[in-house]
Automatic annotation (TrEMBL):
Annotated InterPro entries: AAA+_ATPase, ABC_transporter-like_ATP-bd, ABC_transporter-like_CS, P-loop_NTPase, Siderophore_ABC-ATPase
Protein name (database record): ABC transporter ATP-binding protein
Membrane topology: Peripheral membrane protein
Coiled coil: none
Domain ABC transporter: 7-243
Source organism (scientific name): Nocardioides lentus
GO MF term set: ATP binding
Subcellular compartments: Cell membrane
Superkingdom: Bacteria
Matches recorded under Pfam families: ABC_tran (PF00005)
Keywords: ATP-binding, Cell membrane, Ion transport, Iron, Iron transport, Membrane, Nucleotide-binding, Transport
SUPFAM superfamilies noted in UniProt: P-loop containing nucleoside triphosphate hydrolases (SSF52540)
Amino acid sequence: MTDDHTLSVQGVTLGYGDRTVVTDLDLAVPPGSITAIVGANACGKSTLLRSMARLLAPREGRVLLDGKDLHRLPTREVARVLGLLPQSPVAPEGIAVADLVSRGRHPHQRVLARWSGKDDEAVASALEVTGTTELADRSVDELSGGQRQRVWIAMALAQETDVLLLDEPTTFLDVAHQVDVLDLLTELNRERGTTVVMVLHDLNLAARYADHLVAVREGRLHAAGPPAEVLTATVVEEVFGMRSHVVPDPVSGAPMVLPIGRHHARGLVEAEA
């Protein structure tokens, strides 16, 4: 198990240029748990995660790692604790898979220190658990979108941080690989105690895999807590503007959202009449 590092957001306001995206938001990430951030497009989910990853400084408020201002801590110190998989990472042209994954070890390297057996083990393990070992010698440029996404996840895993932030980790993946990736993150959490925070679009996968659900609406925290408390028909309509039925997931027992489209909504109205 890892140490329970704490990560929290206090009164944070975020934006780009003249545009404010997140306003006066407070959030405490439960240590050693899986947190999923959900919300409509352009509501501020990724912007919030970027600030938690120290990529975007708050206009107001603070992001705290173990009680200290994240944006004032030394970069290498932060990188040993907190890993990030951004939404659209870009690999250096022509780089091989193994070389890219190896870059996850940089925070653990000291000046003039040699590459160690521990570094080799971390890279090999990351490749194995993401099913990318056979791709090690191939150029990242040659890979499919799904393969490339798994390689980026391998790099984040090779960093061996206690807190892992992921922005849409299932992007470009088919359903089977989406489940594989989320199962992998669950295993990391359960076996290593890794705190996972991820932005997800799929509400049902978020509810199934997260211990803690955060719903963001128009740049503000709308609801937070266990999925069964957060994911209600009322919250779904308020956050996504979509009518739905919420029923128990027959596999996990977590709440499962069944959208009601306009055609079916008319049918319900007619039936109720």
